[in-house]
Amino acid sequence: MQEWLNHPAIQSGLAPFVAALLAAELLRRLRLSGLAIIAGFAVTVYLASNFSIEPLTASRKIVWLGVSSSLVGVTLAWFNWPLWRPVLAVMAGSAAIWVALPILRHQPLEVAMQWGAGCALFTGWLVYWMDGLHEAPVRAGNAGMALGLGTGGAALFGGSGLLGQFGLAVGAAAGAYLLIQMSSNSRLPCGRSYTLPLSLITGLIAGLAVLTTRLPWYALVPLAAIPLAAKIPVSEKQALWVQSLLLSVATLACAAGAVYLTWRVAGAPPF
Asked: Do residues 146 and 255 lie in contact, with contact meaning Cβ atoms separated by under 8 Å?
């Protein structure tokens, strides 16, 4: 049993998928189905890593920022303020710099400023545009699945098994959230408890992977396009599975682009 649970495909695929599936359905009546994302991610952290704080490595910062952001997302459901999007984007950018700080300290000042600004901009961008989908569960589901799979796949090809697993776990959890909507032809509650941790975790993973693996910085461009691709016009009169199919073509194409660009540089992943 333990050997089965130690398999990377179980840790970053099946386990987070099942956990998110259960969480999305069980929390549906409380309108907290968006917590499926952090439920799936937490299962992978438990199986593939741990929830320790010391030493506070960059990957552990991502874990705790992700968990904290899900609680922030739940809290924000009771506070309607039009400026939340830019505020959350700025906070996400600051979090990206904090995660990357131990690495940036060993770089020349000019290089550190450039890479720090890049990580902050990318993470803030994802949080800003994914926040615009927090009331569109089908679009958010497709964007989240593509963002998780694209980020995880690119990080894995870049050379980081742990960051790859974290990203793939988010994609698997988003896939479970989307599957319930497609199979039932009804929308799940979404909210910032879904979009905020998803965009923050994937943004931090991608930024850290650029700094520590062979993932090229320009592979982040197709990842950044995923929330925009999820906004393509689709008829609301169509069945949800048809809407999702059309959206997945656009979003997964962006994810595949990020993986392909990384593969061109880094070659096959270190299985």
From this structure: yes
3-state class of 210 per DSSP?
helix
Q: Report the percent of the chain where pLDDT is more than 70.
A: 97
Q: Is residue 271 part of a domain?
A: no
**pLDDT the model gives residue 80:** 82
What mean pLDDT do residues 151-155 have?
96
Residue located via tokens 């693996």: 213
- Cβ(99)–Cβ(207) under 8 Å? yes
CB 32 within 8 Å of CB 74: yes
Residue 201: the pLDDT is 98
The answer to the question of residue 199 being in a domain is yes
Tell me the residue range of the domain where 162 lies.
Answer: 2-266
> Tokens representing 76?
């924000």
| pLDDT tens profile 79-113 | 888 899 999 999 999 999 999 999 999 889 888 89
Count of domains for the chain: 1
Whether the Cβ atoms of residue 167 and residue 202 lie closer than 8 Å to each other: yes
Instruction: Establish whether the linkage from the previous residue to 16 is cis, with ω within 30° of 0.
Output: no
- Classify residue 34 by burial, with Cβ atoms within 10 Å: 0-12, 13-18, 19+: buried
Q: Cα dihedral sign for 168, 169, 175, 179?
A: positive
Assess contact for 248 and 229: CB atoms under 8 A: no
Using CA atoms, how far residue 57 sits from 37, 98, 124, in Å, is 22, 11, 21
* Confidence band of 49 (pLDDT split at 50, 70, 90): confident
Residue 143 lies in a domain: yes
C-alpha to C-alpha distances, 5 to 15, 62, 63, 122, 169, nearest whole angstrom:
9, 23, 20, 33, 14
Q: How far apart are CA 105 and CA 200, in angstroms?
A: 22
